[in-house]
Each structure stands twice: as C-alpha cells, then as structure tokens.
Amino acid sequence: MKRIFALSIVATGLAFISISLLLLMKNPTDSSAQTKTPMKSIYEISVKSIDGNPLKLDHYKGKVLLIVNVASQCGYTPQYEGLQKVYQKYQQQGLVVLGFPANNFGGQEPGNEAEIKTFCSTNYNVTFPMFSKVSAAGSNIHPLYKFLTERETNPEFAGKITWNFNKFLVDKNGKLIARFDSSDEPESAKVTQAIEQALK
Question: Is the whole-model pTM more than 0.85?
C-alpha cells in the first residue's frame, strides 16, 4: 500500500512538472524570446522639457515639427540663431522647432540642463521648446531618435545621426517627410522650402 501511495505521489509530481514545462513553452518569460513592437507614431513618445517636466509628443499634433539634436560647443552651434529666426517666421503658421541637447558627438554638450538653458537664452535668445539631454545614438539611444533613424519605423530617412544639428521635419500628421544634414543651414532655401510645403 505504501509503495502504491509513493508511486502515486511521484506520478503526480511528474505530471505537475510536465504541465509547468508546457506552460513555459507557450508563454516564455525570457526577455530574449519576447519581441518589442516598434512604435507606430511619433506621438507615442514621451520626453522631458529642459525644466524636467514630462511631455508626450502628441501635445504637438497638428503642428509641423523641426526636430534638431543641438550642442553648445559645436562648430554648428551658431545655427541656434537660424533656428530661432525660422521659428519666429513660421510659428504663427504652425511650425514648432524642438531642440534636443545631446552629448554623443565630440562631447560638445557637456553641461546640465540649467547651463544649456542659460546658454541658449543668453547667447541666441532661444524661445522655441528645448528639452532635457538625450542620447541621439548608441546603445542607450532615446526612443525619439530610435524612431526617427531606424529603417523599421522610417525607411525613407533611416540612418544614424551623423553629428550635432541633424534636422528632421515632421508633418502635421506625425509623418517624417524630410531630413537635413548638420551643414544644411536652418534658413537655407532647401530647409525653408520644405517647411513651407509642409505648412500648406
């Protein structure tokens, strides 16, 4: 009798282990087995203002966005002046320039948010929205720049950020419609014509 009882316990244990293994195979918890669904819209992305306030980019729905990774100690830093002028010129028509400080390229944005904010307002009278520092490249790339540069989400304009002051133009529906290099001046015909077309 004891032998039968012991055998039944063993059988029950084996059955439990088998069921557990089957459930694990159906619902793996290993992160390597799970695939992350890429974001479908820029409006799903959350950022922080340069003052640390959280903001979801759907706040800018219906606006044309010029997104720029900026830096305070770069040869292209004087483009802040052009970005501000473009913002002032087209703001009433629906353009918003968004500045994202990043220290990925040449370590040219070493300061903290307070220092960056002071630098921009003092030297270039920047009034367009500025945001907390992000990583625009590498393994810790911010979701915004991951979305803008990956082939899966933006095949037409995919590719790594090349340097500070790369520019991305997003239309009123959140679609990326143009990308400009660091050397493309904000007030150049190439950039302003694309902005004007998007604002129509």
Answer: no
